[in-house]
Specification:
- The complex is a heterodimer.
- Chain A is mainly beta.
- In chain A, the strands form 2 sheets. In chain A, strands 1-4 form a two-stranded antiparallel sheet. Chain A has a two-stranded antiparallel ribbon with strand order 2-3.
- The longest helix of chain A has 5 residues.
- In chain B, strands 6-5-14-15-16-13-17 form a 7-stranded mixed sheet, with helices on both faces. A 6-stranded mixed sheet of chain B has the order 8-2-1-12-19-18. Chain B has a 3-stranded antiparallel sheet with strand order 3-7-4.
- In chain B, helix 1 packs parallel to helix 3, helix 1 runs parallel beside helix 7 and helix 7 runs antiparallel to helix 8.
- Chain B is globular, with a radius of gyration of 21 Å.
- The model of chain B has no long low-confidence stretch (mean pLDDT 97).
- Classes of the chains: A mainly beta, B alpha/beta.
- At the A-B interface, strand 2 and helix 1 of A face strand 13 and strand 17 of B.
């Protein structure tokens, strides 16, 4: 499961553009990750500020 | 509600599309999920004069925050190469103002706009698209034969239409930027910094504005050992000559699609700008290409509406136009990108010694093969140049 640190996120939407299964959506001021997430971790690697982390 | 054309996203690509369609007499609506068009930016705000003038855009003076005569490039050790000249002249825009101005130009032509209206899905029904929009007044369903995806790097329109618009991590810069007040840098130039420890497989920048400067960088994950944010903090710390008295007034993040993979059209759908990954693969600038893509898409959309033919086959004309204008240049710039990604810091130092500003400008214009002559006495660079820059 991927968790968003909402205090750190800049809601830039960069992670949305790299998600291979279209599981991430940027609403105006928040990121939401749906059940479609496959825990591939690409968004975690990409995030410019480290606002995403994989939690077991 | 029924419209001739629905544009998702009110950035430069979306608003130019809307203006082009409205001025041809079509009923066009733009939905923008944010409450304010233009903010927060994901952009260093630079554009050359050509990037606007070539497309007939006479920019409102309030959109301009800085005027630039060229670029200063810095090697890892700080050697400087200056590029200047007529072709390098440009602006650092205030995008919050620029995007609102572009929208106002579209609205004057008759385009309808909705802000805080988020397209959340779309379905195909009887040859039309039904786009579901979440607005602050509740859900809306908008019916249209033609959807324009101008929804940026986080584009959903293409995905809903079955296009593979996902970016690859090897071709997607992780970008971060502070807008800072009280930066001490020559304001007639943009400043670009290279090096494996500065911004791996990317570069750092200072773009001066009227009362501030955009200070940022982009990195590729495969070359980076830290977050883009950490590289930026380090860059600012290591350059007291620019930043000793500077403070941040804004922070921006973003993904920069530096390779174009996706198809641009589907049944009743066209993608423009970042949504179609139309960014210059060398400098990562996206505004000029976004604007141009919308101008091309609008010509094809106008024809499609006249004929009543929104088939993928008919809309493919847009992709063909794009390819004939940009295909070859983009392919060459991708080779140049591959070349640059192989360079180590000592190679950048060497290039700073042997290249003049006009040589670097020629490279950015996709003139590559002269580099073989320039590096002929440097075996490693010659090998790389033979591999990537031969024509």
């Amino acid at each position: 499961m991927i968790r968003v640190d909402r205090e750190r996120c800049l809601y830039c939407g960069g992670c949305v553009g790299i998600c291979p299964v279209n599981a991430i959506t940027l609403y105006e001021t928040r990121i939401e990750i749906s059940d479609a997430c496959i825990n591939c971790g690409l968004c975690v690697k990409f995030c410019p500020v480290g606002a995403l982390e994989e939690v077991k | 509600m029924k419209v001739d054309c629905l544009v998702v996203g009110a950035g430069p690509a979306g608003s130019v599309m809307a203006k082009e369609m409205a001025s041809r007499g079509h009923h066009v609506m733009v939905v923008e999920k944010r409450q304010e068009i233009g903010a927060p930016k994901r952009c260093a705000e630079g554009i050359t004069k050509h990037g606007l003038e070539n497309f007939g855009i006479e920019i409102h003076p309030l959109c301009i925050s800085g005027r630039i005569g060229g670029a200063m490039l810095y090697s890892p050790s700080g050697k400087r190469v200056t590029m200047e000249g007529k072709d390098m002249e440009g602006y650092v825009l205030e995008r919050k103002v620029f995007e609102k101005w572009l929208a106002s130009e579209a609205i004057k032509e008759g385009a309808e706009y909705m802000v805080k209206a988020h397209a959340i899905g779309m379905e195909r029904e009887n040859g039309m698209w039904k786009v579901n929009v979440q607005s602050m007044d509740g859900p809306l369903s908008i019916e249209t034969p033609l959807v324009i995806g101008a929804d940026g790097v986080e584009s959903k329109v293409g995905k809903w239409a079955g296009l593979k618009t996902v970016n690859k991590i090897t071709d997607y810069h992780s970008g971060i930027q502070f807008e800072m007040a009280n930066v001490k840098a020559d304001e007639n130039f943009i400043h670009l910094f290279f090096g494996r420890e500065v911004a791996p497989l990317g570069y750092a920048w200072i773009f001066p504005k009227a009362f501030s400067a955009n200070v940022g960088l982009g990195v590729l994950e495969k070359g980076a050992s830290m977050r883009a944010y950490e590289y930026l903090i380090k860059f600012i710390k290591e350059h007291d000559e620019f930043f000793s008295a500077a403070q941040p007034i804004e922070i921006n993040g973003g993904g920069v699609p530096v390779a174009h993979f996706t198809e641009m059209v589907a049944e009743g759908v066209m993608l423009v700008g970042d949504a179609a990954q139309l960014v210059n693969p060398i400098h990562g600038g996206g505004m000029a290409r976004a604007i141009h893509s919308s101008i091309m898409a609008a010509e094809v959309a106008d024809d499609a509406i006249r004929k009543g033919d929104f088939s993928k086959e008919n809309l493919m004309e847009y992709e063909r136009k794009w390819e004939s204008e940009y295909g070859e240049k983009t392919a060459k710039l991708m080779k140049l990108r591959a070349f640059l990604e192989k360079l180590e810091d000592k190679d950048f130092e060497l290039l700073a010694d042997i290249l003049q500003g006009e040589d670097i400008f020629a490279l950015t214009q996709a003139k590559l093969s002269f580099m073989l002559r320039k590096v002929v006495t440097h075996p490693k660079l010659l090998g790389l140049a033979r591999k990537y820059l031969s024509e």
